[in-house]
Fold Protein-glutamate methylesterase/protein-glutamine glutaminase.
Amino acid sequence: MGAKRVLIVDDSPTIRQLIRTLLANDRRLRVVGEAGDPYEAREKIKDLAPDVITLDVEMPRMNGLSFLEKLMRLRPMPVVMVSTETQKGSAAALEALSLGAIDCIGKPASGALDEAFQNLGDLLVAAADARLREPGLRKPVDPATGFRWNGRYVLIGSSTGGVDALETILSEFPENCPPTLITQHMPETFLESFVRRLAPKIAPRFELATDNAPLLQGKVYIAPGGAYHLGVSGGDTPKCKLLSDEKRNGHRPSVDVLFDSARPIAQRSVACLLTGMGRDGAEGMLALRQAGATCIAQDQATSVVFGMPRAALEIGAAERAVPLGRIAQNILQLTGRTSAVSV
């Protein structure tokens, strides 16, 4: 297969040059053009037929979100959003994901751009081959009823495509859901925006995890990212633990760290690995399963990127692949009994 064709869309010549330079030695990719605004990008897309584009959120004449909405409606294609890691920029990035962008990457307000974009090549390759979804077609789902928790905890890991997958799953969770911990690969401010965006839409209480927070029924805890991984303490009353370790598999927060930390409560746990590139979470899930946890992974047909679930299935860490639309039902079946659950 030939190199994936990339179009860079950003009003900043500095950012365009930085991205071009970072991708120059990646034989999997070829930058075929640049555009300084959406109008120029529209013409370049027609002329150059890129396989994937990077798209800035804030641009003159038309902002990136407006352009993305038109693009996904008229000529759907893989898009990776580039957004400032400010509150406003992070909220816009989450909106872009709901409009159909494959993923978003942070553009720090000052400095550290090389570090911020270090995984951009891998992300663009994965995005170019990702399964495009039609935005805005998720049907409203009523949360399960009659759920009675059996004492088992839920651990979920996700990456590229995970925001939409998590929303799909959590929208089916009842108000008294099993205690649930989630590690989603995202910059810290994007995770904060994700919680603000999703919390009003789901029945359980959804919040950023804090150190030593007890794992309570009816609550969903998401890794805050930044300087910390999310882990869980053992014992009769497990708690969230924020761990300031180095990156694992290139990520902080890392799914492997979450799964590894839960081995003391493996026999009381259900682990799920969702869409995402790479293999973060696979080894940790294998250790969990060997210690007695029940482990599942999202299937290929419903994954935006099948990397992480594939890795878990290939090494026997996940015992089965489950379509996204049935994952919530499976989790609730395994952690309790409810009349709304069927497998």
Remarks:
- Residues 338-343 have pLDDT under 50 and may be disordered.
- The chain has two domains: 4-128, 148-336.
- The first helix runs from residue 13 to 23.
